[in-house]
Amino acid sequence: IGDLPLLLQGKILRLVQEKQFERVGGLQTLTVDVRVVAATNKELREAVARKEFREDLFFRLSVFPVEIPPLRRRRGDIVPLAEAFLDRYAREMGRKGLRLNDASRRALLEHNWPGNVRELQNCMERAAILCDGLEIEPQHLRLGGAGEGGPTLGDVLDLSGPLADVVTRVSAKAEEEAIRLALKAAGRDRAAAADRLGISPATLGKKLKALGIEAD
After folding, report:
1. I need a surface site. Which of 25, 70, 156, 180 has the fewest CB within 10 A?
2. Close Cβ partners of 20 (under 8 Å, ≥ 6 residues apart)
3. d(CA 11, CA 6)
4. What average pLDDT does the structure give for the chain?
């Protein structure tokens, strides 16, 4: 919906607000009872600030927003999705037994996936075609190109929005991860973890409570 012209945005706003519309070329106003589910890959708040998206429509559509992060920020989903796609294409091609080897799994995890899930789907279809055995090798994936070199901070954290909000969000996430790692390294002993972090056990206790993390 982020690419719609402003005129069409106005018509959608009327449909959402008044539940009325006219057919293309028609003169009769029709009333309907509908719910609108909209999706976009654009940052609509930024589009509103640039006057490219209507603010009133943005707030009308933002009743229950659901954010689906890009694939590069959902590393745990990459291999399961790849295996599901590979299984589908193996069945369609009558090639049961096709599977990813460890090297190809690592290659999938190291790729940044600028094309998201669609790119992964195309990648697995291509690999199924190119593979002449049962194991998918990295060369069958053909994932090389610019922008490689493993995930960056922006691949695993949301860095969008005002800088102050980004810094606060990233700082909070880094603090939580540091606490979890210290607890794990200390065998979940609170005093030992606090010593590793350079804070008092009392301070650590307050942070654990705020984060909802339990420790011995």
Report:
1. 25
2. 14, 29, 30, 31, 32
3. 9
4. 86
Q: How far apart are CA 72 and CA 156, in angstroms?
A: 7
If DSSP states are collapsed to H, E and C, what string results for the chain? CCCCCHHHHHHHHHHHHHCEEECCCCCCEEECCCCCCCCCCCCHHHHHHCCCCCHHHHHHHCCCCCCCCCHHHCHHHHHHHHHHHHHHHHHHCCCCCCEECHHHHHHHHHCCCCCHHHHHHHHHHHHHHHCCCCEECHHHHCCCCCCCCCCCHHHHCCCCCCHHHHHHHHHHHHHHHHHHHHHHHCCCCHHHHHHHHCCCHHHHHHHHHHHCCCCC
Q: Can you say whether the dihedral through the CA atoms of 117, 115, 102, 134 is positive or negative?
A: positive
Q: What average pLDDT score do residues 64-73 get?
A: 84
The model's pLDDT over 156-188, given as tens digits with 9 standing for 90+, comes to 677 777 888 878 888 888 898 899 888 888 888
pLDDT digits (tens, 9 = 90+) for 31-59: 988 888 888 878 888 888 888 888 988 88
Question: 216 falls in which pLDDT band (50, 70, 90)?
Answer: low
> In angstroms, rounded to a whole number, what is the distance separating the alpha carbons of residues 35 and 37?
7
